[in-house]
Design a protein that fits this description.
- By secondary structure, the chain is mainly α.
- It has four helices and no strands.
Length: 150
């Protein structure tokens, strides 16, 4: 049941679950592009400054290969970073959106007069305290003769 619920929750409100990771990816991409552009300019100026001092084409090719390796490695690291940020963002927003779906079901059940419905969250979901309070409210509404606990 947990796997089914987890898969179902990932399909509910997908835009909300992707909003934070998308924002993080955009911010990261802007800063990463700026860093890569700065590196490109720095290496270009460096190459232009030493171009006349190198004696052979082999040195030119070696220098260009090293600059190319640096830029390629930087791009791969940036892509990997974007993927990791996206995965972490989706995981954490899933922990925020999943409980909201359960809360919405609970409130709809209470509106419909079903006071036996309960919110059951996973141990590491956000809002566990709120789920307990909502379950206590349902219990109180289901037994109006009991005075509320202080």
């Amino acid at each position: 049941m947990k796997t089914r619920r987890r898969a179902r929750n990932s399909l509910i409100e997908p835009r909300l679950q992707l909003a934070l990771p998308a924002l993080l990816v955009v911010v990261t991409a802007v800063f990463g592009a700026g860093q890569l552009y700065q590196s490109y300019l720095a290496f270009g100026r460096f190459y232009a400054a030493i171009e006349g001092t190198l004696a052979s084409d082999a040195h030119h090719r070696l220098l260009l290969a090293q600059m190319n390796d640096y830029l390629t490695t930087s791009a791969v690291i940036a892509i990997f970073y974007v993927l990791v940020v996206t995965a972490i963002g989706i995981a954490y927003t899933h922990k925020m959106v999943g409980p909201m779906v359960a809360f919405r079901r609970q409130v709809q059940a209470l509106i419909g007069g079903d006071f036996t419905a309960r919110v059951n969250l996973r141990k590491r979901d956000a809002f566990l305290g709120l789920a307990d309070d909502l379950n206590e409210l349902a219990e109180t509404l289901g037994h109006p003769e009991k005075p509320p606990a202080d």
